[in-house]
Amino acid sequence: MSKSLKRVERALAEAGVETAVLEMPSTTRTAAQAAETAGCALDQIAKSIIFKAETSGEAVLFITAGGNQVDADKASALAGEPLGKADADLIRAQTGFAIGGVAPVGHLTPIRAWFDPRLSEFETVYAAAGTPRHIFPIAPDVLIGLSGARPASFTA
């Protein structure tokens, strides 16, 4: 079992979240792949989008519905500084995850995070569990609390 997957499972267990991490038969690197594999609506996929805060250099997280795109200007306004593309090294160093498996929980270091209200329209959403083949179902309100994300409007 990967270290990333173990970290997500531990974060869920320590928070008292009763859910089963699902190993999917094919990749879930994209929201469309995850939705197809999980048999759910595209917007039920909670994508973890990481940006680099240009002033502080830290990674910031936007948890968004699978069919939505993060609006860079709205996201920058929320972060209070310009945001740019986060490279794989920054993502790995600050979250502990590789691109394609970034989970909204279980990061190596605390991360500022925002949550797309569209996700709250569903009873259950699915998020990456640290690998390109693992996801977990979770209630949106539980994910907000567990991730420390603030609900905000940041999509295009």
SSE layout and pairing:
Blueprint: H1 3-14, E1 22-23, H2 31-38, E2 45-53, E3 59-65, H3 72-79, E4 83-85, H4 88-95, E5 112-115, E6 125-128, E7 134-138, H5 140-147, E8 150-151
Parallel strand pairs: 2-6, 3-5, 5-8
Antiparallel strand pairs: 1-7, 2-3, 2-4, 6-7
Highlighted features:
globular; eight-stranded mixed beta sheet; 156 residues; 28% helix; alpha/beta; single chain
Structural features, described:
- This protein has 156 residues and is α/β, with parallel strands linked by helices.
- The chain has helices spanning 3-14, 31-38, 72-79, 88-95, 140-147, and strands spanning 22-23, 45-53, 59-65, 83-85, 112-115, 125-128, 134-138, 150-151.
- Strands 1, 2, 3, 4, 5, 6, 7 and 8 form an eight-stranded mixed beta sheet that branches.
- The chain is globular.
- The N and C termini lie far apart (37 Å).
In short:
The chain has 156 residues and is of the alpha/beta class.
